[in-house]
Every structure is written in structure tokens, then in C-alpha cells.
Amino acid sequence: MFWVQFFSRHASVQKILAISSVTRCTSKSVKHGRSVCLRSIFFNSVKYYPTKLVLGIETSCDDTAAAVVDDTGKILGEALHSQNEVHLKTGGIIPPVAQQLHRENIERIVKETLCVSGISLDELSAVATTVKPGLALSLGVGLEYSLKLVDKYKKLFIPIHHMEAHALTIRLINQVEFPFLVLLISGGHCILVVAQGVSDFLLLGQSMDIAPGDILDKVARRLSLTKHPECCRMSGGKAIEHLAQQGNRLQYELGAPMQHHPNCNFSFSGLHSNATRIIMQKEKEEGLQEGHLLSCVTDIAAAVQHAVALHIAQRTHRAILFCIKSGILSQTNATLVVSGGVASNQYIRRALQIVTDATNFNLLCPPPRLCTDNGVMIAWNGIERMRAGLGVLHSTDGIRYEPKASLGIDISEQVGEVAIKVPSLEVPLNELATINL
Ligand code: KG4
Ligand code: ZN
């Protein structure tokens, strides 16, 4: 996502917030499981309380989210307020606007979560909150609110690394044992890690510049896709996926990044420049100014989506081969988990499926609502940490948020030194029309 740099003029922020007050922001709360009050459950007249209940709070970017999860992985309730519509209107996230919207919504979202969960604050075992990485102003709202709750209700506090939470979400849904390979692709992140334990990661590679969701959002914005009748309310990535289905990816060639760097790092800014150049050329040919819809948006969307998918698939393929060669993962029953907002893209998933089929890996993706930012993943990370006895705090003295934070031990240089050559893959015939790895 395009994070507009700090915007200090109060008047401008007020103007944008005024847009937000007339915009219907997405807000939802969901009750899961039994329809009875989950505060206490009776089994043969014996009152049963789940032993651990964690409230998760997420405000690292542009979603204000909360959830209560118990130690069996049951989601008792969740609520989420998305700022997406506001940021679509302003052409990107303006941090003070995001901060103000978090402030306006956090209390309501937490109350709704507790209400649909049927849980009182007294019954919670702990509060888990994202403290890194993310936008400083957004992280600050969640942390400040959480610390007040923790102090008032004398709860344990579990600081959460946003990317660790994304990586572990799959274990809420599937029985995946450590170690497994994780690809996180979102608007702000692009990393390949091996999850060896709850708080034990090896970083194989990451983006050297922008994230895949960021390039999709930037291209969508440059193409003015919010003016397209079929995708005016979609995120950039979703709009590109939607239009690409009707386009011909072979009309434009964007190139393959980092072919002379045999590692697992990524780079998307070259693809972004090439896409912008093509768009400018087409505008010239069609006699259009920036801000007007080109006739060939579907073909450009298809070409960009394909180039992004191919780059992600090739780097992930190398990561899989490295893990096998170095013995980090066994060749039998190994798993690739893909998560983050971009993981909901079906074309990218298909490209990754081709890679995992060829390498005998299982491919697992959380459902879309758990791929994007949510409170459940934070609460579940809290449960994982409680079970493992890791980072559960009795005192919150000195707790700070950290806008920048890497995940795990960085072994990306060693990966590059091995310089594994990625073979080209034979793609099933019926896939050839859409993908060609
Ligand atoms: O994980 P997420 O909700 O937030 C963070 O960025 O952390 O991911 C949002 C990103 C946006 O860039 C959005 O355009 C992208 O995920 N996205 C998609 C799709 N749906 C959302 N990208 C490609 N295809 C999609 N269907
Ligand atoms: Zn995220």
C-alpha cells in the first residue's frame, strides 16, 4: 500500500476525516461457534471454563480489529473496522488519518468483540496486541488502549509481532507442525521465512524495495481503476485480479526482475516502472490524460499480475529447493504456507500450486478473511505464546511499539551463496493459456 508520508497540516487531516464521516466504512462483528452465551458452558451440570482466553488487538496499519480466541483455537467473537474506503479516496494511507480513525473506533471494536464473544474483561487471561512492525501512529493507538485495559483489569500482556501472527495463523485452522516454509505477501510486506517454532524463524529472503500489494495498488491507482464501474470499491490488488481475468497478458512484456541474483529476495519497483512506462505510452496513443480509463486496462492488469506471480513463484521455488538441499525441511510431507492480503489472489496461488506440485510440497493458505489483517491472528498468536510460555508479561514497564522490525534470523546471504538454479517447470496443458512458468 502507498503510505503517504507524514501529513502534519491539521486542516488537511480534518478535511480527509470529514470524507470518512460520510463514507460507510466496512465494520463487521462475527460470532462463532455456539449460539448460547459462551461465558460459561455447562457439561453434565459441571461448569466448564476454557482455561485460557486471549483478547487480540490489531491496529498496525489501516484495520482496527479485535478477537477473542480460546486455547482450543475456538474463535469466540471478532470485530473489524476497515479504513479501506477512506484510503481509496485519498489515494493511499495518510498516517494521521489512520491514527484518528483507529482512535475513533478502537473502543467500539473491542466492546463489540467482547459482546459477541459473551466474555467480560475479567474473564480474559491476557491481552495480546500488535506492537511491531507497522505505522508508528497506528501502532501507538492499539498499544496505548491495550495498556490501559491491562492496567485496569490486571491482565497479562503479550506483545505481538504482526508478521509472526500472519505466519502462525495457519495453525489455528490446520494441524501444521513446525518446521514449515511461509511466504507472506501483502501491501506492506514480502518475506520468505522458515517457521521453526512459535518465536523461531529463519529469514530466507525479502523485498528489496516495495511489496507485491504495493505495486498492484500503485498500478491500479495509476490506471484510475476506482473509476471503472466493475471495481470502484475494490482494493488495488483485487481490481487488478478482477480485470486480468478478461485481459490478455501476452499483449505486454514487463520482464522478470533479479535474474542475475540467485537468491530469495524480491524486487517489484522495476516492474512498477515498466508498467508506468507502458501506461504512459498507451495514454499518448489513445490521446488520454492521466486519470482517464484506457481501453486496454484489462491487458495491462493481466500482464502486471502475471509478472508479479511469476517473480513470486520463482523466488519461492528457489526457497523450497534451498530448504530441501540444506536439510532445513524434509522432502516428504513439507508444507508451504502462503498468507497476507495478496495471498487471496487466485492467479498467484495457481502459480505457487504449480511450484508445490513439482516439489511435492503441500500448499496451505488461510481463508481470505484470515489472510488479510484481522484480530483473530493476534489473539491466536497470544494463545501460541501462552502455550509455549514465551513473551507473556506480568509487567508492561518499558513496553514500546517498533515501526520497523525484522522477523527471525537473517540467512538470506547464505541462501544467495548457494546460488540454486531454478529449473523451468512443465505446466499442465490446460494451464498454458493463463500461466507459463
Ligand atoms: O495483508 P493486508 O490486508 O494488509 C497489509 O498490507 O498488511 O494486504 C492488503 C494488500 C493490498 O495491497 C491489496 O491490494 C492486496 O492486499 N490484495 C490483493 C487482493 N486482495 C487484496 N492483491 C491481489 N489480489 C487480490 N485478490
Ligand atoms: Zn498484515
TrEMBL record:
Annotated ranges, domain Gcp-like: 74-380
Gene3D superfamilies hit by this protein: 3.30.420.40
Pfam families: TsaD (PF00814)
Superkingdom of origin: Eukaryota
Cofactor requirement: a divalent metal cation
Gene Ontology biological process terms from the UniProt entry: tRNA threonylcarbamoyladenosine modification
Protein name, per record: N(6)-L-threonylcarbamoyladenine synthase
Native source species: Platysternon megacephalum (big-headed turtle)
